[in-house]
Design brief:
Helix 2 runs antiparallel to helix 3. A hairpin with a 5-residue loop joins strand 8 and strand 9. This protein has twelve helices and 17 strands. By secondary structure, the protein is an alpha+beta fold. The radius of gyration is 24 Å and the shape is globular. 41% of the residues are buried. The longest helix is centred in the first third of the chain and has 24 residues. The protein has three domains: 287 residues, Phosphatase 2c, domain 1 (4-Layer Sandwich), CATH 3.60.40; 41 residues, no CATH class; 64 residues, 3-Layer(aba) Sandwich (His-Me finger endonuclease fold).
Length: 443
């Protein structure tokens, strides 16, 4: 007897209908396994490891692994803070950054809205943490690589030269952070110079420059960090942010300080982790880095495995498919034929880019160009969340008319102290001081 599956008249096979039904079901969150290893030389590397964390500010670190932390309301957070000129900035940032980020996200959002709001909140949280730390009058600074995992979505915010890479289940490698060493980033050199900083190498007798490019005063090799008040405001805390969505095949994150990356290239680090669980993989990477170059610097590595739930079988890595991808495939559903979609919910190993932005300009980073714009309190400071009365805030757009055709709202807005911070980072205060000094010089 011949059996027909098109009982509803659609002509679609029953197997396809069942697969589509599975696609419409709630996607389960992945299992998160992680390991961390540190070899200390200066005692300035610090980590933050939270596998279950509430989305509400003030509850982040205390809710780790708690029984009351419902899976639907939790995220995972992993970070490395590589301090320099002391550990004060790294410790302060570790203790305050997460709450500052979460406080910048409005309550009662859907999961999709929360994901859309996160990149902006990360910028606000980084800048607020830096601004608050300046009141401590400490001269240290820190790099930050800050990773938030929300289901299958991974968001990475970074300043400095600690790095985060992702290896998908298929074996393709993705860079999720930026390198803010002056030697590695010509655009940052131009920005620092335009903002009033001087960039050059250490001069020796005869005028020859040695060593890496540095920013003067201070001699810092980085263009972005938290802290470093003695160097200048042109060393900004505005992070590069990248947000991607993994398929349910999962992947592995390697987050490490420059003690690792100065000794190992990314492919070497990944090769050393083959077949090892997260803790053993982190230990192997640190061991090989120290063996290669010696313990010249604090050397720290976090390995995070994002795995399918236990009842799902992760696909095996296909040999010969490895490679580097700086660009991501956008909206895989747009690129798949109906036949491909019928054969499965989605491709087994597609990493989809949701968001990426690296500009150091606050006006660009805080301006909302997506529908989530109306989720934010209109008159709160976009950085420190200070509640202001209508008319008190200063538009991040500066001289742009408040009710222009481009931006009829005129916001987002900053309080007066955050506006001063913004102008200092953009070099406007330096420019004004230079003009004032020039006017005082007798002719």
């Amino acid at each position: 007897m011949e059996v027909h599956a098109d009982v509803d008249g659609s002509g679609v096979p029953l197997a396809v209908l069942l697969k589509r039904e599975l696609c419409n079901q709630k996607v389960e969150k992945p299992d998160i396994l992680f390991g961390e290893v540190n070899k200390s030389k200066k005692g300035e590397d610090f980590t933050f490891l939270v596998d279950k964390c509430h989305r509400s500010p003030g509850e982040g670190a205390s809710s780790t692994g708690g029984e009351n932390a419902g899976d639907d309301d939790t995220i995972s957070v992993f970070a490395i803070f590589d301090g320099h000129n002391g550990s004060a900035a790294a410790i302060y940032t570790r203790e305050n950054l997460l709450n500052n980020v979460l406080a910048a996200i409005p309550p009662n959002l859907t999961s999709e809205e929360w994901t859309a709001a996160l990149p902006r909140a990360l910028v606000a949280g980084f800048v607020k943490t830096d601004k608050d730390f300046q009141t401590k009058a400490a001269r240290s600074g820190t790099t930050v690589t800050f990773v938030i995992i929300d289901g299958w979505v991974v968001t990475v915010a970074s300043v400095g030269d600690s790095r985060c890479i992702l290896e998908s289940a298929e074996g393709t490698v993705y860079f999720l952070s930026a390198d803010h060493r002056l030697d590695a980033n010509e655009e940052e050199v131009e920005r620092v110079t335009a903002s009033g900083g001087e960039v050059g190498r250490i001069n020796i007798a005869g005028g020859a420059g040695i060593g890496p490019l540095r920013c003067w005063p201070g001699g810092l090799c980085l263009s972005r960090s938290i802290g470093d008040i003695d160097v200048g405001e042109f060393i900004v805390p505005v992070p590069h942010v990248k947000q991607v969505k993994l398929s349910n095949a999962g992947g592995r994150l390697v987050i490490a300080s420059d003690g690792v990356w100065d000794a190992l290239c990314f492919q070497e680090a990944l090769n050393y982790t083959r077949g090892l669980p997260a803790e053993a993989a982190a230990n192997r990477i640190v061991k090989e880095a120290v063996t290669s170059k010696g313990l010249r610097d604090d050397t720290t590595c976090i390995v995070v495995d994002i795995l399918p739930p236990e009842k799902l079988s992760p696909p095996l890595k296909r040999p010969g498919k490895g490679g580097i991808k700086a660009l991501f495939r956008r909206r895989p559903s747009d690129e798949m034929s109906e036949d491909q979609m019928d054969r499965g919910c989605f491709e087994p190993d597609v990493v989809e880019e949701i968001y990426e932005e690296g500009s150091a300009m606050l006006a660009r980073r805080l301006n909302i160009n997506y529908p989530a714009g109306n989720m934010f309190k209109l008159h709160d400071c976009a950085v420190c969340q200070l509640e202001m009365k209508p008319g008190e805030g200063i538009s991040v757009h500066g001289n742009m008319p408040k009710h222009s055709r481009v931006d009829p709202w005129g916001g987002p807005f900053l309080c007066s102290s955050c506006q001063v911070k913004k102008e200092a980072m953009e070099g406007k205060l330096h420019s004004r001081n230079s003009q004032s000094a020039a006017q005082l010089v007798p002719k």
